[in-house]
Amino acid sequence: MNRESIHRRLFLAAAAGSSFMAGICSPLLAQDGEKVSEPKGQEGKPAGPLEATFERDYDAPTFKPSWKKQQLNRQMLQDFVIFAHSELEMTKKLLDREPGLLNGAVDWGTGDFETALGGASHMGRRDIVKFLIERGARIDIFCAAMLGQLEVIKSLLTLQPTLIDAKGPHGFSLHFHAQVGGDDAKEVLDYLQSIKQIELKPVPFLTK
């Protein structure tokens, strides 16, 4: 089994264990609260993401967006974020096709937002992370932890100490991101442990 296949399998396993799919199959409802028909996939399950119901209980904003520009295709963005977990060439291919995907985020349900950089970061894929940053992706504290950027982590935690408990996509912690960074992020992991020591569970793909 090649490395990318291992990464794909482990990503799916980690996602299942961290409630990655928890909110994806919520009822599909229109913006005004009226339920609409659901696209059905295999065995009667919804074929795609379903938007939660929402009805304002406050005054609408006075600013009205013009929506002159076309939004990114949701399927393409979803594919891009998934490929960025493990497949550099497909990540490059889709970003070359649509540069607007770079900082796009998918809501996997109940506000579990993930960008391509976020996915590559918690999988420890430095090659994909480096490519995305070179193309202008917005680095965050989780990515910095995986890359072993100790001074960045120190500065951010000095600015806001409660970030030690921050959760990235799928609920993965700063400690986890430092773990998947391997030897290059050891100093970051030691620093995080000095602030808040937690039980570090083995990360399966670090032993493969």
* Strands ordered across the widest β-sheet: 1-2
The name of the CATH topology is Serine Threonine Protein Phosphatase 5, Tetratricopeptide repeat
**Spans with pLDDT under 50 lasting ≥5 residues?**
1-39
Helix-strand makeup class:
mainly alpha
**Coarse morphology:** globular
Largest sheet: 2 strands, antiparallel
Distance between the termini: 11 Å
Name of the level-1 CATH class: Mainly Alpha
Total strand count, please? 2
Number of helices: 9
Please give the radius of gyration in angstroms: 19 Å
Q: Give the helices and strands as they follow along the chain.
A: HHHEEHHHHHH
Examine the secondary-structure arrangement and name the CATH architecture.
Alpha Horseshoe
Number of domains: 1
Tell me roughly what share of residues is in helical segments: 40-55%
Please tell me the overall pLDDT: 84
Proportion of beta-strand residues: under 5%
Describe it for me?
The protein has one domain (3-34, 46-53, 72-206): Serine Threonine Protein Phosphatase 5, Tetratricopeptide repeat. With 208 residues, it is mainly alpha-helical. β1 (105-107) and β2 form a beta hairpin. The model is unreliable at 1-39 (pLDDT under 50). The protein contains nine helices and two strands. The longest helix is centred in the first third of the chain and has 15 residues, at 3-17. α4 runs antiparallel to α5 (126-134) and α4 (116-122) runs parallel beside α6 (141-147). The protein has a two-stranded antiparallel ribbon.
